[in-house]
Amino acid sequence: MFRNLHEIAWHRSFGVLIERLDQAGFWQALVRRVGSGVNVNNWVALVFEQGTPSLLAESPAADGGSDALFQDYLKGFYRIDPFWRVNGEQPQSGLFQLADVAPDYFAATEYYQRYFKLNIVADEVQFNCLLPNNRLVLLSLGSEQKFSEAEIGWFSLIKPWVLALLRQRMAYEKIETPAITDNLQALRETLTARELEIVRLMLSGHSNKGMASHLNIALDTIKTHRRHIYSKLNIKTQAELLLIFLGKS
Q: pLDDT digit string (tens) for 70-122?
């Protein structure tokens, strides 16, 4: 038996979401339900196929249109986003919070300064649902303040319902395969595969020690690779490296 009217309303709201699975307003309705009583300032729904993201839906920008900064994410920032490990490297289902995936010096990176703090601001959680053939559908929620323990508890409580809805929604999504632009071509022509991986880790916010641990190589080897990278590319700053990484140099 239901214990109170609030519990009845809660179950009814998820029933309404099931009815809207094939409708255009599904994502907005899902975010309203998931974010009920939670400080959610922006959101996006994506599907990753073979490590490449496609946009399903997003919260509108301040002017009511699409977020121009988010286009940089789709063009390459996603490779250095903290959630890349659970989205692209090792896609997996679950609920993930920024604090669980962000490297040591994430807040000091050019990516954080140029994109993350402007788009997400303070905190982010992702509901990830892994589909057959390593496809991953996700719902990301951003907040201007750090999510509280109670809010994370709420997200954890509803995770099974949200993941089930994400999985079922994909039967109604018509996904256009994005035109893939290889923004890393300039780097591939100049750097070794190991150096390219270090570039990605460095731009993601990993310290030298963190990169050495991640790649299981000596700390001095990391330092040598970094010197070679900057020398080969004839650059002096991480800002210059980021522009090359995005193919904007």
A: 777 887 888 889 999 889 888 999 999 999 999 989 888 888 887 887 776 78
Residue located via tokens 């307003």: 25
Query: At which residue do the structure tokens 């040598």 appear?
Result: 224
For helices 193-204 and 219-233, angle between their N-to-C axes, nearest 10 degrees: 100
C-alpha to C-alpha distance for 196 and 93, rounded to whole angstroms: 27
Q: What is the C-alpha separation between 206 and 220, in angstroms, rounded?
A: 15
Q: How far is the C-alpha of 146 from the C-alpha of 227, rounded, in Å?
A: 36
Q: Are residues 131 and 234 in the same domain?
A: no
* CB neighbour list of residue 134: distance below 8 Å, 6 or more residues apart: 50, 91
Rounded to two decimals, what is the model's pTM?
A: 0.85
Q: What is the CATH number of the domain that holds 219?
A: 1.10.10.10
Cα gap 77→38, rounded to integer Å:
27
Contact in structure between 44 and 132 (CB atoms under 8 Å)? no
Domain finish residue from 110, 143, 172? 172
